[in-house]
Amino acid sequence: MAKHHLYSASSAYRWLVCRGSVAATQQAMAEGKIKKERSDSIDSLTGTCAHWLLEKSLLLDIHPKRFLNRRHGGIRVNLEMVGHIQDIIVWLKKQIPSGGKLYTEKRYRNLRARFDLDIGGTVDIVIVGPGVLKIFDLKYGTWYVDHNNNPQINFYSLAAYLKYKKEYKIRSIFQGILQPRSFMSGEDTNRVVKITPKKLLRWERYKVLPAIKEIKTGNPQLTAGDHCRYCSIEAICTEQGQYLIEVAQTEFKSLVKPLHTLPNVKSLSPDKLAALVTHQGQFIRFFKAVKEHVNHLVLTGDMVHDDLKVVKKNRSTEYTKTQQKIIADLKRKNVPSTHYLTEQKLLSHGILKANLTAFWGNSSKANRFINQTTTVQENGFTVVPTTDRRKEVEIETVEDEFAEFVAKPED
């Protein structure tokens, strides 16, 4: 397993902005306020398995279906994953220029001596050829990852550019996110942007160097924002807490008891409503992180409070026999299958497309089938922050969409 760098490229989106986050995390670990190791979720383990499948298939130059049902990190390679990775491999091979090479899982560390920090990471895909450099990162989650000015990809590009610029006389850099399970209207799952070496070096000068300079002072500042996502100290960070309090400058500030009555949403001004919607994800994540942290403190005896108590979780019931054994037992007892088997349902079109691609070995045939059997359904409108990447639309009337929020006249 690759060494985990203190200032990793994958978390650069956070520490380039919140320059004190790494030091604060290290201090919290040393003081026992947070766990030193965070357990991997199913999503992260699945992503690791997909990366492994892509690497092995490329290195051995074999179809990923050869690994079907193999396990890596406790995750089984299924048809959906095989289809996704094969699509990516076919696409990647088309990106290799004449006289070029493809490398997978290239590790780098301390790419600049002047940085003098433990900065590093592992690049999923590097394609290099005469005059051109291509850097691609696989994201197997469904949460949309932007490929434009992505700090992680920028670090990877910088490392590769410094390594290959003289040998290949790099003039153009292509950066991409490969995200087969994330679908957004009007966007491909393989998203690429072209930049120049000059733009990349300008990013290093004006974004990276100032951050490193502040970090090396020994007193870097904490800065809260949406980059707090997945931060280990999100629940105990005073800067994050203060930031959310300032955002919620409504009657929320008088909320001192859990059962205090919240303000009526219809009484809030447009500015307050917009602020709450814009930061809703951050509030939800913060409250979830707080709940997890409080549970840990109370259950370990490190916290006692008159307003809190410990209760048993709701019980769950699980089968002690395999599904096949239970079905066989019920069949012997002449129980109709309708009493214990649910009706079979068609898989989602995304999973079906991946499965058909793997089964037929032909993504075009799978796409044609899906296109012939699906249609795009409009589902109305919703309100999101202006930072959302979806295109803004104009609608003639919103009364029907937001009727439940329209204040009724007093009797």
Low-pLDDT stretches are 254-259, 398-411
**Largest β-sheet summary:** 6 strands, mixed
Give the strand tally.
Answer: 8
Radius of gyration: 26 Å
Structure characterization notes:
It is a single chain. This protein is of the alpha/beta class and 411 residues long. Helix content is 38%, strand content 11%. The protein has helices at 12-15, 21-30, 42-60, 79-94, 151-168, 197-215, 238-247, 270-278, 280-299, 323-332, 349-360, 363-373, and strands at residues 7-8, 71-72, 75-76, 101-109, 119-129, 132-138, 172-178, 190-195. Strands 1, 4, 5, 6, 7 and 8 form a six-stranded mixed beta sheet that branches. Strands 2-3 form a two-stranded antiparallel sheet. The longest helix has 20 residues, at 280-299. It is globular. The chain starts with 6 loop residues before the first strand and ends in a 38-residue tail after the last helix. Mean pLDDT is 81; it is low at 254-259 and 398-411.
